[in-house]
Amino acid sequence: MPFQIVRNDITKMKVDAIVNAANSALQMGGGVCGAIFRAAGPNDLQKACHQIGQCAVGEAVITDGFNLPAKYIIHTVGPIWKGGGHHEAEYLTSCYINSLKLAVLHGSQSIAFPLISSGIYGYPKKQALQIAISSISEFLLEHEMDVTMVVFDQDAVQLSEKLFDSIYQYIDDHYIEENVIHTNRNQIEYDQVYSEMPILQSEPEFNISESKRSLEDVLMQLEETFSQRLLRLIDEKGKTDAETYKKANIDRRLFSKIRNNPEYTPLKKTVIAFAISLELNLDETIDLLRTAGYALSNSSKFDLIIQYFIEQKNYNIYEINEALFAFDQVLLGA
């Protein structure tokens, strides 16, 4: 997945490069910085930092990863929060962009960030996350790289109170406590909320007004595979392949598999990511899901959150993923 948010220890991330929220003197500090120094080997890392000297706010420098799983450590100095009127946003944006450019320069294909400046530097977490997502998503429009935002806890991702309450109320109004399916043939039980296996249903559980469609359209769509339907929709919407998979937070290699194999069936979250990318309405989204053997369910919080955003005509996949993360659901993308 080109961009994801995870709860993890950044020193354990198996990526090409991790980013250290450093101080200007490149000295071992506390918080994330201290943890990275300790895991990498404080003496070796401090020696490498001494050889560099200093790093200005918003800039980035690079060292080896030493004892870390990551090959490189990119050190960037975030701004101290002073109320927002001292170019903090510009400096923080530069931290992400310069770190990403440095990663590309050194051949890195994957990178993990902490939420820069949101600790002892006092940057409000919600604003810090918005800048991180905006900077990274803009960069990914022009570059191929897997980017992970690593947070220690769910509180790091803070939706606005209004949005959180609105989604929560929507789930409360529509949720049906019926999410265990029994199959008589092999007596397997599984939770439909988290299952990625295709679930064939004759009708979706949502109460949706039927669209008027010609018999020719219906018959054509019944014969289409997921790959065929997706490629047709891309053409109909006037989109390019790259524009579609990037906006869907999908890896180019996965899109290539889908394009080259008409019988390929992706995960449900991947199908929905394409629906969001193409800004499909709810009818169109359900139709696309059916071609891959999936359906939406009122017993799935994940599905209800997706329906909420589609009904609101909000197709920003990064905002949707923020909401999914806040409600402890799987994120959209590959």
Quick structural summary:
This protein is of the alpha/beta class and about 325 residues long. It has helices at about 30-40, 40-50, 90-105, 125-140, 160-175, 215-225, 225-235, 240-245, 250-260, 270-275, 280-290, 300-310, 315-325; strands at about 5, 15-20, 60-65, 70-75, 110-115, 145-150, 180, 190.
The tally of structural domains comes to 2
Shape: globular
Oligomer: single chain
Q: Give unreliable regions as ranges.
A: 179-195, 199-211
Q: What does the largest sheet look like?
A: 6 strands, mixed
What's the β-strand tally? Answer: 8
Counting H and I runs of at least 4 residues, what is the number of helices? 13
Approximately how much helix is present in the residues?
Answer: 40-55%
Instruction: Give the N-to-C terminal Cα separation.
Output: 5 Å
Radius of gyration from the CA trace? Answer: 22 Å
Q: By helix and strand content, what is the structural category?
A: alpha/beta
Strand arrangement within the widest β-sheet reads 1-6-5-2-4-3
Percent in strands: 5-15%
Average pLDDT score: 87
List the helices and strands in order: EEHHEEHEHEHEEHHHHHHHH
List keywords for this structure.
single chain; about 325 residues; alpha/beta; Leucine Aminopeptidase, subunit E, domain 1; 2 domains; 6-stranded mixed sheet; two-stranded antiparallel ribbon; 13 helices; about 45% helix
What does this molecule look like?
The protein has 13 helices and 8 strands. The relative contact order is 0.12. The strands form 2 sheets. It has a 6-stranded mixed beta sheet, with helices on both faces. It has a two-stranded antiparallel sheet with strand order 7-8. With 334 residues, the chain is α/β, with parallel strands linked by helices. Helix 1 (31-40) packs across helix 2 (42-52) and helix 8 packs across helix 10. A hairpin with a 6-residue loop joins strand 7 and strand 8 (189-191).
